[in-house]
Design a protein that fits this description.
Helices cover about 70% and strands about 5% of the residues. By secondary structure, it is mainly alpha-helical.
Length: about 350
């Protein structure tokens, strides 16, 4: 399995390198100053492909992935509910409404981080790979042309609002990320529940990395505008190191859930379409309260059988009854002295 994951990671990395070479018109548009970022994205591609292959090889993830893919590409599902998939992509991936049920503050902070990172990725990756170029006919502006793969897309004036937004997109992303990451960092220092289960490398390092990247990025702009480039070289190296570290860290830390989350959309679609088909939810075997649809419960039982847990019938109980049954089992063993 690990050999297959390594081969998959190597293939994905090779494809990315080929895409960089071709997209930059055989490196004519590639900026050598951005080479460390490009190398980091190649390592990122390998790590994501490797970790993802290992992840979906586990019984639970494999079943989730298979059911999600089947629901995602099902023509019957599209005919029954043509708007279900776009709606889930917007609400589940884009606006993450499920987080709002836990805390409005956590949802708002997560949205700031999410959209800030999306904006930064949409700008940084194509520029790093040489897919986007900005050229000036006069060599010093203010008129610029944006080209994608060598083709002119639009022209703009760097002194108007559109031009300002073009050149300060990463600053806007940083302004979004800093308050969101700071909130979660503050929460992990104050909330007892978060403090109890947190790990420095897994929970705190990603937040610190996001803040360092954002702050150093803003300082680069501050240096170029107000300090006439003072300290720019040091800030550029610090910013580059923090970005490269974060990109390499993504596949092996908490940021990997960014890659995992889209796979859950297919599972949500599976649950949604099975509810529309069956109508009624399966009842708990103990309290008779509804649990979920029969196909979903059977899928869960199948996962438990794949893992050889030996109690797949537990999927037919609601969470409350599971806790009651587990408590009764503990009490029974205590009375027997664990013999």
């Amino acid at each position: 399995m690990r050999r297959r994951a390594a081969l998959t990671g190597t293939a994905v990395s090779a494809l990315l390198i080929l895409a960089i070479v071709l997209g930059s018109r055989f490196l004519r548009d590639f900026d050598s100053a951005l080479l460390p970022y490009a190398v980091a994205t190649v390592f990122l591609a390998f790590g994501v492909a490797y970790r993802y292959t290992v992840w979906i090889s586990a019984p639970g993830a494999r079943r989730l992935f298979t059911q999600g893919r089947r629901s995602f590409f099902s023509a019957a599902n599209f005919r029954r509910a043509p708007t279900a998939l776009p709606k889930m992509i917007v609400t589940y991936l884009g606006f993450q409404k499920f987080l709002g049920a836990r805390s409005h503050a956590r949802w708002a902070a997560h949205q700031l981080i999410f959209w800030g990172c999306v904006l930064a990725a949409l700008i940084t990756f194509p520029l790093t790979w040489g897919w986007f170029t900005f050229t000036s006919g006069s060599g010093s502006g203010p008129g610029y042309e944006m080209r994608i793969w060598g083709f002119k897309v639009l022209g703009f004036d760097s002194l108007d609002i559109a031009g300002w937004l073009m050149f300060h997109g990463l600053d806007i992303a940083a302004v979004l990320v800093i308050p969101g990451a700071s909130y979660f960092l503050w929460r992990r220092m104050k909330d007892r529940g978060a403090i109890t289960g947190q790990r420095f490398a897994y929970d705190l390092v990603p937040l610190i990395a996001l803040i360092v990247i954002s702050v150093t990025g803003l300082l680069l702009t501050f240096s170029s505008i107000f300090l006439h480039g003072g300290g720019y070289e040091f800030l550029a190296i610090l910013h580059m190191v923090s970005v490269v570290f974060t990109l390499i860290y993504i596949p092996f830390g908490k940021f990997f859930h960014i890659v995992q989350r889209p796979a859950a959309v297919g599972m949500q679609l599976f649950k949604y379409t099975s509810r529309r088909e069956d109508g009624e939810a399966l009842a708990c075997r103990r309290c008779r309260e509804p649990i979920d649809t029969a196909p979903y419960v059977e899928n869960l039982r199948g996962t438990m059988r794949d893992l050889d847990l030996g109690f797949d019938e537990g999927a037919e109980y609601c969470p409350r009854c599971k806790r009651v049954l587990r408590g009764n089992a503990y009490l029974t063993h205590v009375k027997k002295g664990y013999k």
